[in-house]
Amino acid sequence: MGKFTYVMKNTLLNMRRSPLLVFATIIAVLVSSFLVFTTLSARSIVQNNTLRWQSGVHVVVFLDDRVTTTAHKQLQESLNSYPEVRSVDYFSKPEAKEEFQSLFKDQPELLAEVDFEILPSSLRINLNNPSDYTLIIERLEGNPAVKEIRSSGEAIERLLSLTNTLVISASSFAMLIGFAAFILIINTLRLAAYSKKKEIKIMRLVGASSTYIRLPFIFEAVIESLIGTSIAVGFGWAVIEYSKNSIVSESIFDITISDDYLIFLTLSLLVFSLVFGLFASFVGIRKALND
Amino acid sequence: MIKLKNVSLVFQGGSVAISNISVKIQEGEFVYLVGHSGSGKSSFLKLLYKEYIPTKGEIEVANIDVSKLPKWKTPLLRRKIGIVTQEPQLLENRNTYENIAFALEVMGGLPEEIEAKTNTLLDLVELNENAYKYPGQLSGGEQTRVSIARALANNPVVLLCDEPTGNLDPDLSIQIISLLEKINRAGTTVLMATHDSSIVNRRKKRVIELKDGKIKRDELDGSYIVR
């Protein structure tokens, strides 16, 4: 108990000696952890959404209404025979009208203005492998029954590519700030060790163990790291909760992310910050305490 | 208590601090280690508490084989040795009581044990009245006594003193020697490095004289004549 009290007392004393550096360190850890938390959460949200889209309709073939319905049926049959295709549903003009009315039921002005005759009938294709959408587009090119082809695959690919770019950029930035935090921790500890040079010398002379001399410094680094990460994770959770009820979630995005994933992410970040603090303290005081 | 066998210490660059020294100091002895500045006195003491590692030879202190002791076990050796340096090395922001208690605190002592032991040590070095004075308010001799009390905090079997009277006037030096003799009479082996001939010659003790890192003479009831 005596030892623990001594270590804790000295940890807090060290932190009180250079409050600005401690504050800067916590902020750097906070920003870095927040970036990691939010980008990984965002990636998970995007993956959830794209997964949902990928299980739905992959290609929509809008049909030319000037062509006979027999030609439409023939096209549907020929599509069904393709090995890449899982199912093809015919969507008639009345069904298209019904869907439009359902989608925009909250906008009566729009519904009043629209001429439903322009809504074409369509074939909605679900593929075994969503990435095969290009093959279908190639095969349908030039078909007189086809007016226009839309594919969700392209949009999904673009979104995933954009998300990956964002994740890589944000992660690189987080690493940069994390490195700054690392340097700050090392500097804070070195300053503390320097200011306690005489104390450390006496501790050595009277036979205090190296671990015991190091513990206040190790605790300091770990505490700073954990405080920064804890606040970052708290902010991260708050941002996600806020987004769930914000305008973003009412648009194309559904802000769904499992609590299990968030808990896993939180614990991983806390464990990482613990290891980060230990490593930074090891590097920070190794030379200072060996002199 | 202390054994050195063919011990040498050569620093990087080739300067020889200790050259092939062999010596034995029995339990309960009071020994003066004398010699001019640069003769190797401090290096000799630093070898004993593993501040320096010998280039060759064997060292044993308090039944611990210092030459084979791994670095991480050095604290175990130092808990058996009290070390007093020429500069008292006191913490300026702690008073006399706290400076002595510090040695017990860092060893993880319980508050009640620390209090009892610190008061005993204050009695021993006769600093009760100065217990709440800070180093800046103490004389040189008083500061050295604080440093001795701190060195005794962990009940060492050997007390190594590196010129503790180096900065003191003759009267204060005599007080410090009297204190060290008192500690020696209680059973602690004392090895004191000094180049102050008046102290050595006033009290007849064993004298080991070093010159250029070698033992020039080793005499019981010796004296120190500065040439």
Provide key terms for this protein.
heterodimer, A: 291 residues, alpha+beta, Alpha-Beta Plaits, four-stranded antiparallel β-sheet, 11 helices, 4 strands, elongated, B: 227 residues, alpha/beta, Rossmann fold, 2 domains, six-stranded mixed β-sheet
Account of the protein in words:
The complex is a heterodimer of chains A (291) and B (227). Chain A is an alpha+beta fold. Chain A folds into two domains: 2-53 and 157-290, no CATH class; 56-152, Alpha-Beta Plaits. Chain A contains eleven helices and four strands. Chain A has helices spanning 2-17, 19-54, 69-80, 93-103, 108-113, 133-140, 152-195, 197-206, 210-244, 247-250, 259-290, and strands at residues 59-63, 85-91, 122-127, 146-151. Chain A has a four-stranded antiparallel beta sheet with strand order 2-3-1-4. In chain A, helix 1 crosses helix 9 (210-244), helix 7 (152-195) runs antiparallel to helix 9 and helix 9 packs antiparallel against helix 11 (259-290). The longest helix of chain A is centred in the middle third of the chain and has 44 residues, at 152-195. Chain A is elongated. The mean pLDDT of chain A is 82. Chain B is α/β, with parallel strands linked by helices. Chain B has two domains: 1-80 and 159-227, Rossmann fold, CATH 3.40.50; 85-155, no CATH class. Chain B has helices at residues 41-48, 74-78, 96-105, 111-124, 140-151, 170-185, 197-202, and strands at residues 2-10, 16-25, 30-34, 56-61, 64-65, 81-84, 158-162, 189-194, 205-211, 214-222. In chain B, strands 6-7-8-3-9-10 form a six-stranded mixed beta sheet, sandwiched between helices. In chain B, strand 7 (158-162), helix 6 and strand 8 (189-194) form a beta-alpha-beta unit. Chain B is globular. Chain B starts with a strand and ends in a 5-residue tail after the last strand. At the A-B interface, helix 1 and helix 8 of A face helix 2 and helix 3 of B.
